[in-house]
Here is the input.
Amino acid sequence: MNQYDVAVIGSGPGGYVAAIRCAQLGMKTAIIEKYATLGGTCLNVGCIPSKALLDSSHHYEEAIKHFADHGIDIPGDIKVNLKQMIARKDGVVDQTTKGIQFLMDKNKIDVYHGLGSFKDSTHIDIANADGKVATIEAKHTIIATGSKPSSLPFIEIDKERIITSTEALKLSEIPKHMIVIGGGVIGLELGQVYKRLGAEVTVIEYMDRIIPGMDGALSKELMKVLKKQKVKFNLSHKVKSVERKGNEVIVKADDKKGQEVEFKGDYCLVSVGRRPYTDGLNLEAAGVQSDDRGRVAVNANLQTNVANIYAIGDVVRGAMLAHKAEEEGTMVAEILAGQKPHINYNLIPGVVYTWPEVAAVGKTEEELKEAGIEYKSGQFPMRALGRARASMDIDGFVKILADAKTDEVLGVHMIGARCADLITEAVTAMEFRASAEDISRMSHAHPTYAEAVKEAALAATDNRPLHI
Here is the structure.
């Protein structure tokens, strides 16, 4: 029986990063992956493939809508080759997952493919696709099994017409009318992909706004932009049935007045969130406890009630984000090595990869009001930037929230081109507890989108932006 200092169950961003960090710190490490390729949901059917399709569809939209404005004339009709688009996405996924395998080899991490389940707190059975079972012994185990798409109790996902994000990444045709249940990150990103490619897209959202977890100003601005792109929205609608009849899907919902509304399309994307995935782990055998939401229960150090077993990522409390899982994987590895790492969960950024992109870190305006914290706000529109006008990406703004007395930055919320990258400036500043004035006095290259951050900081400091 092979023995290890650490066994990691799950090879997504949290799991493989945890394994690498453990190996770097001198621990003999194994990683167990249920599927044939490493990388988990993020690399195989989540972050990476969805961004590949978002980029491909963005190029297509630019070609048909804006190339002529740039003086680029393309003879003949521009057509979508969905098969090639999906093939390129698959190639990106293949290259990325092979990169994880390379990292495992480089760090001398043993990889086991099969379903890992606890035999007891220090032994793990691994059942491969052929049904053969191997058992390993681990001094410590890190559970990193991630999450799966959620659904509603009355919806039957047939993976053909009524689909989740997994199936939406490999459709063989462009929908005529895609109904999206859920106005969160996943639904909006994939909805925009197929809208760009020619589908009619209708979003049905239970809450009174889209991306409900983010600052209200971002929700309002993103919906305004997506409406300009002809995406249809139905907010405050409670879906009560989804039925397939041949190639047609019929969705019935009650609107905010309680009246029934019917929607018909050829595809229905169910994107109502994700759920922790612990199926087959046999947690009971190890004595590991779960909470009332099906998550593995952990303390501040991500340690379960069983001292030698830890859990990270989507399977524990907190935002279901790949980069949050990576930070937790690193933290657990360093705790096992006797170090004292720390994660500031308030400074884990959130991003929506639509175009324009949406990104945020820290407290929302709604949260500050609820907590009774006095704050000041500075906002700057992207359209006032020379760089934005040069690229024709003028939608959006940057908003900075700072403490009214100390000027410390409490939250940064932005929507616009490249905001997924720009938000890191805000994270860095807030990690060092910068004031709005600190940011306003830093030189930002011209012309760039990042100038909007400086201008918003000037607006928050004493309402003196330079370019509006």
